[in-house]
Structure formats: C-alpha cells, structure tokens
Amino acid sequence: MLTQIVTFLIFVAVIGCILYGRKLIKTEKVDAVFGNPERALGGTHWVIVGSSFLLLVWLYYSWDIAKGFYPKSANELCQVAKVNDSLLGLKYQFPIEEREFKSTSQIKKENKNLNLILNEIQNSQEIDNQQKTVLAGFIKKTNQLIPLLTNEDLIENETKQKINDITGKINLLTENFQKPDYPFETEQELNERLKAVSEEGGWGIVKVKSGTGSIENTMEVPLIPATDRGLKFHAAAQELNSISDEFFKLRNHNPQFKNQIKQLKEDIKSYRKNLSDSEEVASTYAKNIVKIARRIEFASIYPPNALDKMQNAIIKFDNAQLKTQGGLRFIDILLFPAGTIVASGPSCSEQGSGRWLPKPSDTFNKFILMSKPSVGYKDIPLLWIDMVDVSKMIGFILPDWIADILPGEYPVHTKDGIVKENFKGNVLKVVTGDFKLFKVPVPYGHIWDSFLRVFLGLVFGIIIGVPLGLFMGLNRFAKGFFDPLIELYRPVPPLAWAPLIISVLGIDNTGKVFLLFMVSLSIMIISARAGASGTQLSKIHAAHSLGASKRQILRHVIFPNSLPEILTGIRVAVGMCWGTLVAAEFLAGTTGIGFVENVAKKYFQYEVIWITIFIMGMLGLLFDITLRKIIDKTIPWRGKG
Amino acid sequence: MSDLISQNLNMIFKTPKGETVHALKDLNFTLKKGELLTVLGPSGCGKTTLLNITAGFIRPTSGVITLNNKEIDGPGVERGMVFQQGALFEWLTVAENVNFGLRMKKEDPIQTAKKVDEWLEIVGLQGFGNTPTYQLSGGMQQRVALARCLINDPDLILMDEPLGALDALTREKMQSLVLKIWKETGKTIILITHSVEEALLLGERLYVMAPRPGRIHKEYNLPFALMGLKEDLREIKKNKDFSAKREEILEMIWNMEEEIMGKDI
C-alpha cells in the first residue's frame, strides 16, 4: 500500500518539478548567460527530481513496485518457473532453444573424442604397433555403435510405442491445461491449499522467531500456488516432471546394439587383463574408449525423425502455457527488471537485482525489527535505551582498591553463619557498585557501541595528542624526541595494526578503542603541532609585552591560535576512525555496525547489509555536520584574521 | 630618572650562509621621559632591531640599554609595543583584547571593565567592546592595539611602523591620535616609520639611521610635534621650514640608498 502511494507521489513530484523548472526557465531574465555561476544557484525542484529519481530506481530495481502493485505476481511467476524448470530437460532434446538435436550434438561430441584418442594413440611413443592396431580396432567398433542407434529400421516397436505414449500424455496435458477449471481441484483440496497459503505468508515475508534474538531469512517467494492461474501451472509442472522422468528412463537399445556393446566391453576387459604392468598406457587408452562407449549407451540417441511428434507436442504445450500466462508475462518483463523469479528443484528464489537490492518496504520493516530489543540482531538491538542504576556507574568509575587500603579487615562470617557488615565491607559495596540508587536511561546496541568506540578513541587521541602536539610545536627536544616514534607508526595503514592490537588487547572494546586512539593520536599531534608552529611571532611578542607568563601565552595565545588546525584535524580524524572502526569490527568482535554487516554477509542477508551501509553513511554525515557546526561556532575568525 | 639610556649598543647577526651582519654599531643615545622619538632610515638600517632590543625580545651582542636605571633583559609590561599589523588576538573581542594585559595580571574585573571603557573612548571606539576584532577595519584594529598597549600604563611605548599599512586618510587621523595620546599621557614614545613626513610631523626628536653598519646618521630636534598639538597637521605640512627639512632628509636617504646599490653592483 505504502509503495503504491510513494510511487504515485514520486511520479507527481517529478512531473510537477519538471513543469515548474520549465516555467522558471521561461520567466528567467535573458541576461543569464552560459557560464555564469549564478545559474547554478537555487533549484530545489531539481533536487526533488533527483532524489525522486533515485528512489524510483530503487523501488523499480528492487521489484518493490511489482510487489506493491501485484503482490501475487511473484507467487505466480514461481509456478511458471516450475513449469519451465520441468520442461527444460525435454526441451533440450530438440532444437527449440538449442541449435540442434541433443542426439546430433552428442554424436558430434563423441566422434570428436574418439578421433582425439585415435590421434593420441597413433602418435604415442610408448605403445608398440601391434597394440596400436588393437586399440584402433576398438575405436572403430565404438564408432560403429552409433549407426545402430540412429537407424530407423532398427528401432524397436516397444520403444516406438513408449514414445507415442509420452507424446500422447503431453498432448492430453496441453488440452487439459487450456480448460478453465484445470486441474479439477475439489472443494476440500481448495480449502486445504488456501489454508496452506495463508500459513506460508506473502512475498518477502520476515518471520521473527520471538525470543531467539535473530531475524531468520525466511522464504523470499511463497511456493504454494495462491491463485487459480498459479495452481494450473503448479499442476502442469508436476505432471511434466513425471513425463520427463518417464522419457529419461527410456532407452533406445535394440538387440543388435546390446550385443555389440556387450561384446566390445568384454573384448576390452580381456584385452586389459592380458596386458602386463609395463603396458599401463595402452590399458588407460582402452579404459577411456570404454568410457565413451558407455556415454553413447546412456545418451538418449534416437533416429533423426523418431521424436518429431513429441517435439511438436512440446512446442504446442509451450505455446499454450505462454498464452495462459497472459498479462503475467508483461508484468515479468516490465516490473521485474534485470532478472526474474527462478525455480530450482522444490524452491523458488529471486534472481537478479531484486535479490541483492532489498525492497525499501522490507528494509524499513527489518530496520524497525532490528532496532527493538525483542528481536535485535544477534541478541542486541541496533539502538535502544536501557535503564541503568547510577550505582553501577559509580562502581565502574571508582577503583576497588579504595576499599583495600582502608584500615581494618573485611567481615568474617560468625559461628552461626551470619555475616555482619562493617565499615570496610560497606565501602567495598560502594566501590563495586553493589547498592541501589536511582536509574537513568542509557543507550545501548550496535550503533551505540560503534559510536562510543569512535568517540572514546577520538577523545583519548585529543586529550593526549593536542598537548603533545603543541609541546612538539614549541620545543626542540619534544619535536626531536617524539617525531621518530610518530613518523614510524603513522604511515602504517591502521588496519595493518588491527590484527596485532586485537590479538593483544582482545576483541572487545579495549582493542578497538586503542586502535582508534592510535589513528586519532597521530592526526591530532600533527595538526596541533602545525597550529602551534604557525602562530605569528608578533602575537607572541605582543602577549609578552602585555605581561603574560609562559603558561598564559600557551593557554591564551598559542592554543586558541591553533584551534582551527586542531578542529580540522578532529574532522579528519573522525573520518579515519569511522572507516577504521568498521573494518576492525569486520575482523573481530561481538557488537557494532561492522560486526552486523559481517554476519549479514555470511548469511546473504542483503537487507541487513544495506541497512548497515545506510546507518554508516548517516552516522558519518551526522559526525561531519556536528563538527562543521562546532567549527563555525568556535572559530568564526577562521580565514578572516 | 626615568630615562632610556643606550650605551655602546652592538648587534651582530649571523645569516644562515655564515655571513655576519652588523645590524647596530656603537649606538649611544638618551631619551628623556615624555619625549617622542621617531626613527627613520632605509630598510636594513637596524630600526626594528633597535626596537626589538628595547622591547627585550632579543639581546644585544654587546652594550647595555637601561630604562629607569634598570637593564633591559627581557620583555616587560613597562615597555608596551604596537605592531604594524596590530597583532590582535582575533579569537577575542575588542574589549577582551584591550583588557588582555590586565586579565593576565588578574586584576579586578569591574575595575578592568571601567578602564577598558575609558580607553576605548580615548581611541574613539566607544560601543565596539563586544565586536570581534576580525570585523574591524585596519585603522580601528590599530586603535585597539593602541588601547591594549596603553591600558597597561607602560613607561615607554614602542611603535613599529604602526601606521604603515593604513590608507592616507586614516593615517592622518591616526597621526593626530598618536599626538593627542602623547600629550594627554605624557608617555615616552619611540616610533619607527618609513615615511619622512610622518617622522617629521610626530617626532619631537628624530634619528635618521644609516645602514651597514646600522648607526645613527643624524639627529634632529623638531618643533612640529608641539605645533601639531594645536594646529591642523595639513597646515604644518605647508610650512616652509617643514618642506626644507623634508627635502633635506629625503636627499640624505636617497644618497644612502644609492651608496648601498653602488656597493651591491
């Protein structure tokens, strides 16, 4: 429903904006010449067209429009695909979709193989002439098997009869198929089918196993035919399957052929038995010749015109089923771009852009589900709020040794098994957070974890990097001493450090925060150093003659003067940290956006992958916009001094 | 005695190439309290070096310079400085720039605010206290720089081409302002300039310096600064005496420049 409305709105918006744009061009002043940059100003209507177009492409290529307007089309196309799948084996026997008969191409292929072996044998240095003659004889005999199969006079009546039977069955199916009430379903069958349909659910349904903490990637396309048209194809497909099985069980083996091949096999067997160990090459060639003979035996080779009637029957059925598809074919062509529904064995799936490009509506649903703690992803929601007692935070911040260094002993249980608390014990309770205060909401989840890692890595990098960088910008010793250290680790791509750091510090937050700290530290040091060494000497002189001390000059002149560089550094560092974090979460971890994407990749959960991509983009954008706002607020003098 | 006394001041620089430059040679002068000295000379004659030594930013190679009988061996509040480009702190407002020195001394904020208002009025910037300095014009920035320096009540004010970057009209106004402040506060001022007219107009005393080695070439005692306190500056420029002095000094400097160029070729 939503998809339909959105699609209509998009069309209305695009048409409206194009009309508005044309009107604007007409009313614009004539002096707006080409090349005037002012002509690029404004133009929100084109922004609407652009984004609408993007959304439309997404809706279209993810087949969401097909799902919105024809929700049952996938199910019907699945049934059609089943028919195509069943028909495929039979069709391949004839030049319907191929260029030649299967028999023809089979004969061509085996003749080629025989010639190849013959050539090899004749040119071989390891086989003596006598054996060459014997092997050539085998090849000739194998070659002579083919005419025994393709001779119309030799084909047995029983085989002919069976071919006629199969043809008859196909023709009957075609006839029945065109009847409106095929496959003659009873009331009870209908009710059972409809019940099964409603149990199975619709196209792209997400079944949530409540409490398991994960979204199962359920069936993309429902299998049970939901419509009468679908049922027709479903029944035909089943019937075609049995016909096809029957045909492929059939063997065109007349008595002459049977004798000949039996004798050939025995000859080769006894020949190989009599060969000594040193004549292994000849033995291998003989074995290969037998293999070709076996292939000819089971290749369903028939005389040229023996299957003509059957071919006609298949073509007729194919035409009938195309006709019955009717409008479904156009839906398939128009609304399922770059692919279609494909059946393989018992299941149907989306093949093409609809597979890897998730439908916006599905994506949105999954995003909502993943955000909730009741579903989440791997037991953790994307972003939610948990009520946490303040005592836990106090316990986390205060180190436990505070209680240890207090005088006295911890309480010991008495003879009666009672533990009486003393002061030291109570202090221990406070520093370990074992008490109750009021609760405050604290966000948690994958997004929050990733965010927190970037934030902490960045904060530590700033806290250590900025003073160190300023110091390095002002002091020859500091610059010389720390420069080799930083210049040695900085050019290494952060991800190259990741395996080492994760191995040493663990896959949890510590390792990742430290990795991000390393990334942000070098950037912050370099930018703070550039800021400090870029301070105008006259400003420092002015501060000196105004009576400022060294510390005051650092605090009131050099630091604010380096702020633009430092903030630009932070912006760069955020981008770098964000990229590094996602990759680090790919490597190892149990939470975080990168972790979610990595797991989703393993199970081909395209929706989840797209959701993570989207979240990363949005968070990156959010970081950047926030920083830009902060920069505009804190250093308005930048570029104006 | 609050005099500035320079005794045998020598300054020798070494360039990165290893050549020695004699920036100042045997400089001897005495500046009494309340005098306005302008220093004039072609580029490279050691004007700015002299000022930097006086301010305490650099130490002389030999010789002693004393203010109030105290040897100058570092920057200090008693010697305020005004720079060519203002050197204002652009992250601070006008008022914060002006009270910078007092804030660094941690003086009473209410007293400071009062002083700031007074000084802003003197330099003609009433009501601009909360304006960020980057929004000011060049002349206004120099007024802020003057106020920032004067609010510390220094004994000696050093001005390093403070009006060099201003347009002609603003320059004239600022010259009057400098004279007005000089008169009202009675401060000792050393002003370095490139402009002969400015040196003549503002200088109670005038040193013309010569380069290689940097030395005082000629010394003048001039009446124009005192005249400028009463008369319009433009009127003084029409004075015959003024014109004669200007031509004399200009010729002197031209000769110096020619000498250098000749040496170079």
Structure, explained:
The complex is a heterodimer of chains A (641) and B (265). Chain A is mainly alpha-helical and 641 residues long. Chain A is 68% helix and 4% strand. Chain A folds into 4 domains: 2-61; 73-357, no CATH class; 384-441, no CATH class; 447-634, Orthogonal Bundle (MetI-like fold). In chain A, α15 (360-371) crosses α26 (606-634), α21 (494-505) crosses α24 (550-587) and α22 (509-533) runs antiparallel to α24. Chain B folds into 2 domains: 4-78 and 156-264, Rossmann fold (3-Layer(aba) Sandwich); 82-153, no CATH class. Chain B is built from 10 helices and 10 strands. Chain B has helices at residues 47-55, 94-98, 100-104, 109-122, 138-150, 168-185, 196-202, 224-230, 233-238, 240-264, and strands spanning 4-14, 20-31, 36-40, 62-67, 70-71, 79-82, 156-160, 188-193, 205-210, 215-221. Chain B has a 6-stranded mixed sheet with strand order 6-7-8-3-9-10, sandwiched between helices. Chain B has a 4-stranded antiparallel sheet with strand order 2-1-4-5, covered by helices on one side. At the A-B interface, α23 and α24 of A face β6, α3 and α5 of B.
Features:
heterodimer; A: 641 residues; mainly alpha; 6 strands; B: alpha/beta; Rossmann fold; 6-stranded mixed beta sheet; 4-stranded antiparallel beta sheet; 10 helices; 10 strands
> Could you describe the largest sheet of chain B, including whether it forms a barrel?
6 strands, mixed
Output the number of helix runs of chain B. 10
Helix content, binned percent of chain B: 40-55%
Q: How much of the residues of chain A is beta strand, in percent?
A: under 5%
Which two chains share the most extensive interface? A-B, 23 and 28 residues
Counting DSSP H or I runs of 4 or more residues, the number of helices of chain A is 26
Mean pLDDT of chain B: 82
Mean pLDDT of chain A: 87
The CATH class of the largest domain in chain B turns out to be: Alpha Beta
Low-confidence segments of chain B, ≥5 residues, pLDDT <50?
Answer: none
Tell me the helix content of chain A: 55-70%
- CATH H-level name of the largest domain in chain B... which superfamily? P-loop containing nucleotide triphosphate hydrolases
Classify the fold: give the CATH topology of the largest domain in chain B.
Rossmann fold
Number of strands of chain B: 10
Gyration radius of chain B, in Å: 19 Å
Secondary-structure-derived class of chain A? mainly alpha
